[in-house]
Write the structure tokens for this entry.
Amino acid sequence: MAGTVKAAILRGRKTVETVVEEGRKKAEKVVEGGLNTVDTVVEVGFNTVETVVVEGRKKVESAVSLGRKTVEHVLLHGRDTMQAAVLHGREDVRIEQVPIPKAEAGELIVRVDAALTCGTDLKVFRRGYHARMIVPPALFGHEQAGTVIEVGEGTEGFATGDRVVALNSAPCGQCYFCAHGQENLCDDLLFNNGAYAEFIRIPARIVAMNTLHVPEHVPLEHAALTEPLACAVHGFEDSSPHPGDTVAVIGGGPLGLMILHVAALYGCQVIAVVKHDGQVEAARQLGAAHVVKASSIRQAIRDTRALTEKNRGVDIAIEAVGVPDAWQEAVELVRKGGTVNFFGGCALGTHVTLDTNRIHYSDITLRATFHHTPAICRKALDLIASGRFQAGAFITGHAHLYELNRVFEKLMNRSSEIKTAIVP
Ligand SMILES: [Zn+2]
Ligand SMILES: [Zn+2]
């Protein structure tokens, strides 16, 4: 029996050893497997975190870039309306949401940096229309300079980002008057309005003939003076001046002041004939040798002639008011052989009575100047760019587009403002 017991014990021990051994192997496997699992988990976790961070960063960057693009898009292209002044009739200008213009072939869209108020706009505001220039309801304003934001197909000489001054009109280049160098009298003068707005469409003809690049050193609001200055230079040159001439300028409005400044720069002795106190100082600052401010036309004529040798009268008298009385006054100011320029446009249907005897026997030249030509516009911008012309002195105020009505009301009340820059 003993053999049997021993064998049994031996078998039992082996079984136990086997169990222990198997158990240890299993345990090691479990631990090893566990460690692997932990490592894997940790590693996978790291990878996942990195991926999340990288992907996240990419997503954020993409969102920012997309956001920026969206903002830019909205600013320039995304919206299809803009703020603009619309003339509806007499003293009725409203700021409205209107479609942003699109550039057709040959055209430009310009973002308006500054639009300037002008005596003509004031006249239009009062009368509610301008037979030649604007018929309501219509976009309003005609003096501006800005930056090209869209270039129509086939438009030559301009790119987006260019700083430009686009004039308010362009001649046809084909009619009798254009052929004779009198483009200001063109039978088919094309006018463009809409300067009091965020953006303005420049028609192909104006792009081709009367849109000028603004030199980098010239502020755009100064460049916007090109149009009125072109009219002033044209009127002055048409009066056949010589340096040293005595020139009387009737009217202390923006154009009267511009003409007198141009005449002073040319070397003429200027007598400014003004009506309002606020114009006296401006006339002096812009180069008038004398300023006559009289209570009546008769007195103004006497005072002006008294400033010339032997009361002879001035060499040139330029009328820049646009009323018949001032036209007659101008004729009374000049010497024998002198020149009168009826520069200010009067209301339709008005007339003047002139002393035929004096005009004939005193050999007086009567002439009138309207508007500008492409060559004169270039001359005007050159004068602004030269730095000799005091452009800054003509812009006496700034206002937002929303304030346009208030600005015109102020101008109607004869404030001392010369021009206000309207910034959209
Ligand atoms: Zn104007
Ligand atoms: Zn023409």
